[in-house]
Structures are given as structure tokens and as C-alpha cells.
């Protein structure tokens, strides 16, 4: 990219994503506090609910763009509260699969019900086409970021060591 205007627009997009992410987390915390959840817990529960198969912690983290350690802490807390359980992973002896329990399904369902009025307001004000365009834009951006990080990690052995710990 050699156009300074494009670079500025990408930075503006990144700042808008950061601001929206912060507000999304804060609003999510408020919406689900009465359920005994946080946005971070809801995020992991939602990732599990919509995954086509049970996932190990590392896959949840990778899919969400978070560290394995932070997701592991959340998964452990959710397990203590009976919202998830662990199953043997036929593909990896040590990396257990994380599975929603009935309590976890009820929690994520409650969170979605709490968010439904806000979801409707956003959909009404932003519009379906713009939401679909935003999803496509963010998915494309995520693909570029993932590829860039993969290249950077592959060319920097120190990064590989740090990311695997």
C-alpha cells in the first residue's frame, strides 16, 4: 500500500474497531452482570455454542484472536461454575475438548436474550446491508492480520517460542 490516504483510512478503521470493541465489552458486561457473567465469559461460551464441534482451549483462543492462557483461565472458571466440562480429545492426549453443559447453554442463551433488544436497535439503525459489509470487511481484515502474524512468527524464532508457551 503506497497511498498515504489508504494508510490513514486503515488506521482510522483500526481505531474505530478498538473503540467499538471497548464499548462492546463494557456494554456486554452490563448486559450480562445479572447472569453472573462477564463479556469475556460470554465470548467463550458463545464461541463454544456456535462451534460445529467441541474445541480445545487453544482453538478457541486462536478463533477469537486471544491468548491461550487468557482463554484457559476463563475456561477453568467456567468449569468451576459448571458451565463447561472437559472431554478426551482423540487428536491430542493433553488438550482436552471444552464442552458446554446445560448450565453453560442456559447462560449463553440468557446472555443472548439480554442482548436481543440492543441487537435489534443496532440492526434497525445500521441496516442489514451495512452489517453484512462490516462482517465481510472485518473477516477480510482478520485474514490479512492472521497471514501477517503467521509470516512474522515464522521469520522470528523468538516469537515462535513466546507464542507457544
SSE pattern: HHEHHEEHHH
Approximately how much helix is present in the residues? over 70%
What is the overall shape?
globular
Q: Structural class of the secondary elements? A: mainly alpha
Main sheet?
3 strands, antiparallel
Strand order, main sheet: write it out: 1-3-2
> What is the number of E strands?
3
Description:
- Helices cover 75% and strands 10% of the residues.
- The chain has helices at 4-32, 39-50, 57-64, 68-80, 102-126, 128-155, 157-164; strands at residues 55-56, 84-89, 92-100.
- It contains seven helices and three strands, in the order ααβααββααα.
- It has a three-stranded antiparallel sheet with strand order 1-3-2.
- The chain has 165 residues and is mainly alpha-helical.
Summarize the structure.
This protein is mainly α and 165 residues long. 75% of the residues lie in helices and 10% in strands.
Amino acid at each position: 500500500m503506497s497511498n498515504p490516504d489508504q494508510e490513514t483510512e486503515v488506521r482510522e478503521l483500526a481505531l474505530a474497531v478498538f473503540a467499538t470493541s471497548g464499548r462492546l465489552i463494557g456494554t456486554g458486561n452490563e448486559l450480562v452482570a445479572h447472569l453472573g457473567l462477564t463479556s469475556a465469559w460470554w465470548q467463550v461460551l458463545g464461541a463454544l455454542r456456535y462451534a460445529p464441534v467441541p474445541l480445545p482451549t487453544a482453538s478457541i483462543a486462536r478463533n477469537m484472536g486471544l491468548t491461550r492462557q487468557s482463554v484457559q483461565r476463563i475456561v477453568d472458571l467456567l468449569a468451576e461454575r459448571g458451565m463447561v466440562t472437559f472431554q478426551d480429545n482423540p487428536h491430542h492426549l493433553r488438550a482436552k475438548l471444552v464442552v458446554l453443559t446445560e448450565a453453560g447453554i442456559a447462560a449463553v442463551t440468557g446472555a443472548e436474550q439480554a442482548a436481543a433488544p440492543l441487537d435489534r436497535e443496532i440492526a434497525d439503525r445500521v441496516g442489514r446491508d451495512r452489517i453484512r459489509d462490516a462482517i465481510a470487511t472485518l473477516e477480510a481484515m482478520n485474514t490479512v492480520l492472521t497471514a501477517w502474524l503467521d509470516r512474522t512468527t515464522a521469520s522470528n524464532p523468538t516469537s515462535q517460542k513466546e507464542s507457544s508457551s
